[in-house]
């Protein structure tokens, strides 16, 4: 499962050879660890157009100091006030001189405004920022990421900026994230254990991405319930014991899964993480219904059913979070995965439709993560050539780790992320597949 090419290009001869051959140059990404909780270096705050955002206090609270004249670990360009093509000249003028000096594994974050339906010049200029972000993400290299946040209110976007300006977002690039106005958390949030006092249920939590999600939510203070099929009992108990949580052995496709979860959680649930998923790949011409339906059942129908049951039963507490798992295969499509692609696209539809209602009626946000190529047992089973292509076909030229999806989930689950709703955030190193 190890990425030997990444290790090879990190050596002197490896770098020399692969450069001469014009092969991809993946940089070793800087990820979060207790020893390295923040980016290495300062922040440069730039503006294009006339911004109405009160950004400085929010950026100050992210804990990254100003960059001064040296290398910046992060650049934030507030382009929310850009309303026309002249404003785009200011975007160029602001970033052109500094982009070279952004440190390896550094961050470029653009801030934009929602598109104004009554002003097509503003809409054109703001949409232009999206093309700019995605293009810069593809060319910037050295493990650096570029993302765009559309916002109306700086404090509501604090948790999002904190995530993007940290090593936790190492594999999130080329994304456009919309942050609404949202509510502030009622009580102050403990910085180190923001999820303290919250209960999280992670489906498929016995291994792979689900295990990493359970681990990260527990790190952030949540009490975790690791749900997995009875056949995975040993792994589920091992993960739950390690994290001081409990295991719930249950096939999520069971008709009564929702009521059994509700029974197991008499004090309610705060974070519902729909992670369980399966693949049964085959081209449609060779795919019998026996391979089609189980994928739709596990990846989509059970997510719809348990979500409905838990919302209806009032098991999900106000301020709760639902994070479902889509996939870039559900956005771009993938040969041999009509069943999987359909199920994961279904998750995107579910999120978009349910998010506004779930917040209005239950005070619960609904978002999805869409992983790209993540190094797990699922992708280790992919034939070597396709696996190697999957790893390299993204702007960071490497696969992601389960921790990358877990950190993204933890940001969406954060008590201060109430203004992030209805988003599908790809954790794919800006995969070349799909938008
Ligand atoms: P994995 O196969 O390693 O783990 C999936 C877990 O889900 C297993 O523990 C399994 O027992 C459990 N599970 C399966 N069916 C279940 C059921 N009916 N009820 C309860 N639990 C069940 O997979 P992974 O790679 O960790 O993927 C996790 C999620 O991320 C899945 O939804 C997958 O589709 C999605 N995803 C993964 C990748 C990737 O590159 N690994 C990419 C895109 C999306």
Uncertain spans: none
Q: Percentage of helical residues?
A: 25-40%
The distinct bound ligands, ions and cofactors come out as: nicotinamide-adenine-dinucleotide
Overall 3D form: globular
Q: Please give the radius of gyration in angstroms.
A: 21 Å
How much beta, percentage-wise?
15-25%
* Cα end-to-end separation: 27 Å
Order of strands across the main sheet? 8-7-6-9-10-11-12
Class inferred from helices and paired strands: alpha/beta
* Topology order in helix (H) and strand (E) letters: HHEHEHEHEHEEHEHEHEHEHHEHHHE
Number of strands: 12
The average pLDDT value, as a whole number, equals 94
Main sheet, how many strands, which sense, barrel?
Answer: 7 strands, parallel
Enumerate how many helices there are, as a single number.
15
